[in-house]
Amino acid sequence: MAAIQLGDIRIAITRKAVKHVHLYVHPPLGEVSLVAPTDTRLEVIRAYVATRLAWIRRQQENFRSQQRETARRFVSRESHQLWGRQYLLQVEYVDAKPQVRLDHKHIVLQVRPGSDAARRTEVIHRWHKAQLHALVPELIRLWEPRLGVKVNGYFLQRMKTRWGSCNHRRGHIRLNTELVKKPRDLLEYIVVHEMAHLLEPTHNESFQILLDEAMPHWRQVRDELNQLPLRHETWNY
User: Fold this and answer.
1) Which domains does the chain have, with CATH numbers?
2) pTM for this model (two decimals)
């Protein structure tokens, strides 16, 4: 992948069969990327980016000031989020199969005696994925006829730099398991966003028109999602 440097800003460049230049600043660290038509000269790209430097710096500053979660150790009395609500974690050490239960105020994590932080983290992560698996297929079925697309498969994983991604050639979407911590309507937005990429792979004007028609309030939802706390580590819309 090519790149250019303007002062302290590095811009990764990808050339594709698109009509227009698309510039992105990615959370959480403010990395900058640009997608340009295949035959665009480098000096044209450089001149375009120079006109957008002030915008890039504003976006980067927004990300730098965004709230971060503190590191989680998965111990009792620790605060955890699920679907936008806050719960206290309660860890129980029992010589039985690990499991997670939810009550009105607590996420109850049951693990075997001696389970370390990595093991506790993994049990919770599997439970998070189960929560998402219970909702995502229903959302896909709801939106397939509305968008006129077919999702051939979806995948859940920890993702450091994106809330989701799409392989439009295979008809697959991929979702960040961190979405389980956010309100359900934000998960729905990301599902719709990635499904719309099955029709339009880039974030061009046609893509935005698709979202305007399908989910008129998508910009407000996107802004809400990007204002919520990020993971304590590095974790686009």
Assistant:
1) 2-64 (no CATH), 79-115 (no CATH), 136-227 (3.30.2010.10)
2) 0.74
